[in-house]
Amino acid sequence: MERLAFKMKLNKGQKEAYKKRHDELWPELKKLLKDNGVSEYSIFLDEETSTLFAFQKVSGAGGSQDLSNNDIVKKWWDFMADIMEVNPDNSPVSIPLEEVFYMP
Questions:
Q1: pTM
Q2: Strand partners, 58
Q3: Is there a catalytic annotation at residue 22?
Q4: In whole angstroms, how far apart are CA 39 and each of 12, 28, 64?
Q5: In the chain, what are the domains?
Q6: Which residue is catalytic, options 22, 30, 31, 34?
Q7: d(C-alpha 15, C-alpha 84), whole Å
Q8: What is the largest CA-CA distance in the chain?
Q9: In this structure, what are the phi and psi dihedrals at residue 8, rounded to the nearest 5 degrees?
Q10: DSSP string, 10-37
Q11: Residue 35 C-alpha from the chain's centroid
Q12: How many Å apart are CA 6 and CA 53, to the nearest integer?
């Protein structure tokens, strides 16, 4: 099992919309993530900077990052594009984070 972390950026004032959309995560997206080895997925918000910190526990190397060609994922990106920083293809701007401490 591998742990992955990355950061993304939420647009100012979009915390409630972001939380609501994730509270109502599409069942097909949740199934896709689980079927592709993502066993845990948490996202934390630093409200001062609007930075989102994501953590995934995955079997396999890429976690959700390996699903960029999936139609469900692309549809989710389009759904989220109005409230966060995105690339030209609507994928979230995502920066991998280096693990500097782990306590099992």
A1: 0.91
A2: 2, 38
A3: yes
A4: 30, 15, 11
A5: 2-96 (3.30.70.100)
A6: 22
A7: 10
A8: 38
A9: -135, 175
A10: BPTT-HHHHHHHHHT--HHHHHHHHHTT
A11: 16
A12: 6
At 24, list the tokens. 């109502």
The residue ranges of DSSP E strands in 1-104, in sequence order, are: 2-9, 38-46, 51-58, 95-96
* Phi, psi dihedral angles at 67 (to 5 degrees): -105, 20
Q: What are phi and psi of 89, to 5 degrees?
A: -90, 10
pLDDT of the chain, 104 residues: tens digit per residue: 899 999 999 999 999 999 999 999 999 999 999 999 999 999 999 999 999 999 999 997 555 656 889 999 999 999 999 999 999 999 999 999 999 999 99
Do residues 78 and 87 touch, judged by C-beta distance below 8 A?
no
